[in-house]
Each structure stands twice: as structure tokens, then as C-alpha cells.
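User: Predict the structure for this protein chain, please.
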Amino acid sequence: VLRNGTYPISVSSERIFQALAIIDYAKSVGADCVAHGSTSAGNDQVRFDLTFQILAPEIEIITPTRDMNLTREYEIEYLKKHGYVADFKKLEYSINKGLWGTSVGGKETLHSNQTLPEEAYPTQMTATEPSRLTIDFKDGEIEAVNGCAFDDKVAAIQKIEEIVAPYALGRDMHVGDTIIGIKGRVGFEAGAPMVILGAHKMLEKHTLTKWQQYWKEQLGNWYGMFLHEAQYLEPVMRDIERFLESSQRNVTGRVLVDLYPYRFVLVGVESDFDLMKSAFGEYGEVSKGWTADDVKGFTRILGNQMKIYHAVQQRNDKPREA
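Assistant: Here is the predicted structure, written as C-alpha cells:
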């Protein structure tokens, strides 16, 4: 999922699972309260609150940052005053680093006509020579990276991040609609997710039918929107998951990716399920499963509805006056 065609919902997806883990632990130790540090102006407060309320309505939620309306500047000055030692330049940004990318918010992201400077990104570009990366998928999930097999999918993602991060890949600025109704803007770097999503999409194009791709994209976008907007516990999410899992049964093969500073190129795929390998024809070259007359008849029938429409409209149209 790329929210608004841009953002791989890095933080939003992880917040839900953080909330689930927190409330499970709170219940296991018999806690009366849980606390989080979200402000009143973002999405995370809803993700935490909603999950806590549904799974443990008896536990009180404490939110001092939100309730006291504390600003980042106030917090920095408070820390300085009380002798806290830190890189306060970095504290000017809210940096959320996770498995599926790192978001960077603050300063320039608060203005529509500015972008993050190079130094604001946690990872700097150090790799300058191009290299080839291969990702093997089985049933839509990563199976191997550069020929090395991974049973642990998390470790596979981390390995890809290790390889692509020095190229400073996956940087962009996301502008989206928050759960609370205001527009939000955040910078991010998500090298591994962007490469993985691109490679996975390429393999799907080769192994899924037209309508599988269409409905996978429709339901995937809905799933991503619901996940982003704290609706993970909505039962329809389990229904969508069943479809998404089923759609991946033939998404198996290797994707070749070339890495360059700040960009990557999807070279191609190798798959036993590649639908281009059919015996019916080669696009733009030769047909093997039909004749020229078959295509002529097919096209004539295909155009019937449009022919009728245009014939009727032309008969009823009057010349427009100058």
C-alpha cells in the first residue's frame, strides 16, 4: 500500500501493533492506567486511544502532552533547563524509526512550500557504485535476498534495508488527510519498503490476471486506509486479508533490481508463473492462439455498443450556432 500513491504507511501500521502489545501487557500485569505522549493534533492519539478503549475499556488512558497542550519548543527548553544533554538540533524534528520506514516531521514539513534538508534525514548517501539486488518471493512473501534464504521475514526486510539504505533510497514528502480532518505533511525515508513494494508489484504484473490486479489494488487501498485510520480491529479487515492472501498464491519468483544513488530500476522478473510465457502469442510480434479473421470479428463485435451510441447521437445532434 502506498497511501496517496506515496507513503508506505510506515508509522501508522506500526502504531496499531504497538498499541496491541501495550494493552496486552497492561492487562497481564493488572495495570489501572496506560499513558502515551501523543499531541492533540495528530493521528497517533486516535490509534492508541481507540485500540485501548476497545480492548480494555476499564483501563484509564493518561495523556499529559495532549492535555497540557505542550509544544515541542516548550519541551526542549524544559529539558535544557533541567540539565538534559542531547542533540537538540535533532530534537527539532519528530523522528519515528521502524521496520517499515522512518518518518521525519517538524520545521520544514509544517510549511507547504518547504522540504527537508539533506541533514534532516537519519541516513546519508554513502554508496555511489551501482549494484544488482535480487529478491525472491514465494506466495507474495520474501523468501530470499541476493540468493540467501530467509525464514524470518523481518530479518529479510532488515537485510534489504541494510543493502539499499546507503543509496538514500525511498525519500519523499507525504501530504495526506489525517483522521481528525486536517491536512498533514511529513517527510520519510523508506528504502527497503519502496524497493520491496516496487519489486512485488512488478512480479504481480507478470503473475496475476488483469482482474486480480484490479481488485487486489482496490481492496489493498481500502485495507491501507483502514489500517492508517485506526480501523485494524474492524472485522472486515479479516475478510479483506483472506482475499489478499488468496491473491498471492502464484506471486512466486525472482525480481531483479538495479540500485543507484537516490533511485532504483526494476529490471525484470524470473518466474514459473509468468503469464508472458504463454503459448498464445508474443505482444506486438506474432499471435499463436487466434487468426487474423478472429481478431477482425472480435473487434467488430467489441465496437457494437459504441457504434450504436455514436450513430444515434449523430442523428440527434443539431449543428451548433457560431
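The mean pLDDT is 92.
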